[in-house]
Amino acid sequence: MAARKNAKAQKSNELDGAEFFAAIALIEKEKGIPKSYMLEKINQALVSAYKRDHEGVGDNVVVDANEELGTVRMYVKKDVVETVDNPFTEMSLEEAREKLPHAELGDVIRIEVKTRDFGRIAAQTARQVIIQGMREAERGMIYDEFSSKEHEILTGVVTRIDPRSGAASLRIGSGSEATEAFLAPSEQVRGETYTEGMHLKVYVVEVRRSTKGPQVLISRTHPGLVKRLFELEVPEIYDGTVEVKSIAREAGSRTKLAVWSADSNVDPIGACVGPRGQRVNNIVDELKGEKVDIIKWSEDPSEYIAAALSPADVVSVTVHAASKSCRVVVPDDQLSLAIGKEGQNARLAAKLTGWKIDIKPSSAPDEEPEDGIAAEDDEEIVVEE
Asked: Are 381 and 352 in contact (CB under 8 A)?
């Protein structure tokens, strides 16, 4: 009775070829993991497992997985030699002829590995590799799925808020291709509050590979979020009729957007604003009330800088191309509006245009300039295409 139990236990540990191939086929169907990928991984693992116990065998081990016959067999290739120096990779002519009567010196003979433990090792290895391979393949597919969405907008569901750091985790995607994305405190808009279960539009900054699967880094503060929101709302931007030339943003407070169209029949600002302001209002709602200034881009620096200082009126702009700086004169009653609260309007105009801007009132246009407001190199806004 005990012997029968042992035999049954030993049989359950052996690799059943038919079940093996059926399992791989099922994985391919349900998970989309190619059969060839799984077989390659299992072959590599079986060879490695055998090599661990037979150090001298080198690269002479091969695995033959035959789906038609439903068999998985391992062989060691041995050279037929006159004098055997390495019994793991060589065999004498006499030994060779015991297995293959017509063997000759110089032949390579495949000897099937039929040790008692091979079936058990093969079964355990196959199980481990299938599980690991499924995880790796799923991670790879998730990485491929989300890396193609870098610099795009996705909608996620808030799953967790770290009570100490305030970092938020979002579930992005659905089904087997869903993954967790990380919204760091530095990428959150000041004043916005997030709750578990909340749906949130986010900008995918970067997708990284890691041992735990792909890391999706997302943002609510990135200027690219505004650009993608305009693409969703404004068909003329999406199809390229209207082009977003530059964006300068102080998240949660104000954004300036420079737009342009090669089609003289298209009003780029009107297209972005939409009928009765509907398009831009939808974006402002998504940004929780953040103000958005839409200005017309111009290749003429004077026109561009004057427009960038909107909503203030500008009397004149004197540019100094060599230093990429300019002096802007505004009416006295427009000075505070041109500069903005805490210098925000002038600062965003400088970021948007890339010019150092010195603003003067019309009553004193020739005073010695103070330090202007400039777009530093590390503040320059790059809009991802």
From this structure: yes
Same domain, 191 and 209: yes
Q: What is the DSSP letter of 374?
A: -
Residue matched to tokens 């909340």: 198
For the record, the structure tokens of 365 come out as: 């246009």
Domain holding 357, by residue range, is 298-385
Sheet containing 356-361: order of strands? 316-320, 325-330, 356-361
Cα 173 to chain centroid distance, Å, stands at: 13
What are the phi and psi torsion angles at 59 (to 5°)? -100, 25
Residue 193: inside a domain: yes
**β-pair partners for 157:** 171, 199
- Asked if 178 and 73 sit in the same domain, the reply is no
Same domain, 9 and 59: yes
Long-range contacts of 138-143 (CB under 8 A, 24+ apart): 138/31, 138/33, 138/176, 139/213, 139/214, 141/32, 141/33, 141/176, 141/177, 142/173, 142/177, 142/179, 142/213, 142/214, 143/207, 143/209, 143/213, 143/214
pLDDT for 280: 96
Among the ranges given (32-36, 215-219, 276-280, 296-300), the one the predictor scored with the smallest mean pLDDT:
32-36
Pairing type for strands 71-81 and 356-361 reads: unpaired
